[in-house]
């Protein structure tokens, strides 16, 4: 099976690169329905590194909430946003990434259009608060992945359509959370990139605030297209 790898495979420390490899393995579904990781020794042999290097990578994965260690059972993947692991298809190759972003664009554009039409004052306040939290995280040098997911959840909630919310929670968010987590380890965000992403999110908020459904859908479509481009800038396919 083809593997999804970072373009800059030589960047970052060894533990950072092992961290990214494990997250990519989660995306591909390498660890099965139970999400149990191989042992430290097995991972060390797989990646050709020492066990202390693997141990450091696993420690960071635990601190970031990607895995958890169960006494007597080893390390297991923690399903993000409460979604069951079996609810999302694995990302096996670059074609799957293309398909995923096409799907995500349709779902999230629809949710944004509905949010612009049906949002109330409380929804708008929650959306702006999540945007502020995301901006603060990014400006402080954090990946802001959790805050970004919450921002998109706020859009889905503002649609007052449970089908949008459930689809984003159980299908869209888990994949993008792991994908962006893997990319963020070795891709250090520049101030210019932070400003660009903030502007994309601001356009979405402004359109929803104006109750401009078409503009909201288009702002999300542009944001998702740019998000795909940023992911592809950091990935390549190795046979």
TrEMBL record:
The keyword Transcription applies. Residues 12-80 form the HTH gntR-type domain. It comes from Azohydromonas lata. SMART domains: FCD (SM00895), HTH_GNTR (SM00345). PROSITE patterns: HTH_GNTR. This is FadR/GntR family transcriptional regulator. Keywords: DNA-binding, Transcription, Transcription regulation.
């Amino acid at each position: 099976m083809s593997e999804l790898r970072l373009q800059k495979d030589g960047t970052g420390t060894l533990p950072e690169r092992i961290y990214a490899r494990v997250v990519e393995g989660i995306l591909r579904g390498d660890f099965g329905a139970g999400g149990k990781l191989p042992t430290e020794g097995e991972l060390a042999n797989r990646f050709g590194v020492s066990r202390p290097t693997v141990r450091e990578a696993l420690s960071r994965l635990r601190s970031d909430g990607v895995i958890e260690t169960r006494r007597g059972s080893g390390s297991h993947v923690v399903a993000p946003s409460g979604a069951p692991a079996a609810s999302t298809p694995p990302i096996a190759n670059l074609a799957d990434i293309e398909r995923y972003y096409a799907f995500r664009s349709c779902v999230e554009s629809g949710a944004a259009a509905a949010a612009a039409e049906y949002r109330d004052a409380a929804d708008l306040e929650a959306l702006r608060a999540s945007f502020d939290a995301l901006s603060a995280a990014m400006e402080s040098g954090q990946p802001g992945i959790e805050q970004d997911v919450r921002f998109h959840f706020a859009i889905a909630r503002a649609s007052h359509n449970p089908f949008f919310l459930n689809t984003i929670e159980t299908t869209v968010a888990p994949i993008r959370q792991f994908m962006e987590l893997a990319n963020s380890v070795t891709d250090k965000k520049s101030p210019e990139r932070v400003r660009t992403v903030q502007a994309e999110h601001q356009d979405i908020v402004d359109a929803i605030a104006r109750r401009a459904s078409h503009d909201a859908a288009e702002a999300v479509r542009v944001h998702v297209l740019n998000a795909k481009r940023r992911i592809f800038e950091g990935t390549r396919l190795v046979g």
